Amino acid sequence: GIQVEQSPPDLILQEGANSTLRCNFSDSVNNLQWFHQNPWGQLINLFYIPSGTKQNGRLSATTVATERYSLLYISSSQTTDSGVYFCAVVRGRQLTFGSGTQLTVLP
Amino acid sequence: NAGVTQTPKFRILKIGQSMTLQCTQDMNHNYMYWYRQDPGMGLKLIYYSVGAGITDKGEVPNGYNVSRSTTEDFPLRLELAAPSQTSVYFCASSYYSFRDQGGPGNQPQHFGDGTRLSIL
């Protein structure tokens, strides 16, 4: 099956810093989603991005499908950004998740 | 709309017991999914359904059963609970129409809040 790798596995930032999370995938995909899992375990849809760039406030995402990667940018990080960030790729009817990036933002 | 609702939120089972995890959605979505999330890992697909009466296996179906008698409900059953099934279980739903370009995977999935299951 398709492999989805995320880096870095862990990231610790000071509040106000910027960060870039990466998602690499091993085969062509129909689409890609980024999720934030908050400390309470809830999964929150961030972006649904097969290609190109999208922005939502302090967060933006870029997917380069031909090169099989996606990037999630977090600017001016806040403590509420802490949690695990997952990318998940879509092939056919199934979503395959990476193992996530654990982000900790310190006050 | 409540979205995707899962019950119970927490449960402890003994080895060999059985139970059903409930999932219901009120968005009239035709596709529904069950995932499990083990500690420190991403989610893995257990089963999915493309509509009432139709189910199919995902990546890790062993030890589980599902049914889809209505559009709204997609229960997941554990028949003989084993310690390896200790996990957090997520239900999700999405909508697909044949008019949607790119296939059913091109619609975002909406997730419930999860059921934390421990088997001792």
> What's the number of extended β-strand segments of chain B?
11
Spans of chain B of 5+ residues with little confidence (pLDDT < 50)? none
Average predicted local confidence, pLDDT of chain B: 91
Given helix and strand content, the structural type of chain A is: mainly beta
| Unreliable stretches of chain A | none
Order of helices and strands of chain B: EEEEEEEEEEE
Number of strands of chain A: 11
Give the overall silhouette of chain A: globular
Q: In whole angstroms, how far apart are the ends of chain B?
A: 36 Å
- Gyration radius of chain B (Cα, Å) is 14 Å
Q: In angstroms, what separates the terminal alpha carbons of chain A?
A: 40 Å
What coarse outline of chain B follows from CA principal-axis ratios?
A: globular
Query: What percentage of the residues of chain A does DSSP assign to strands (E)?
Result: over 45%
Biggest sheet of chain B, open or closed, and with what strands and sense?
A: 7 strands, mixed
Proportion of helical residues of chain B: under 10%
User: What is the oligomer described by this structure?
Assistant: heterodimer
The helix tally of chain B amounts to 0
Could you state the order of secondary-structure elements of chain A as H and E? EEEEEEEEEEE
Account of the 3D structure:
The complex is a heterodimer of chains A (107) and B (120). Chain A is mainly β and 107 residues long. Chain A has strands at residues 4-7, 10-14, 19-25, 31-37, 43-48, 52-56, 59-64, 69-74, 83-91, 94-97, 101-106. In chain A, strands 2, 4, 5, 9, 10 and 11 form a 6-stranded mixed β-sheet that branches. Chain A has a 5-stranded antiparallel β-sheet with strand order 1-3-8-7-6, with no helix packed on it. Chain B is 0% helix and 47% strand. Chain B has no helices and 11 strands. Chain B has strands spanning 4-7, 10-13, 19-25, 31-37, 43-51, 54-57, 64-66, 76-78, 87-94, 110-111, 115-119. The interface between A and B is medium-sized, with 24 and 27 residues.
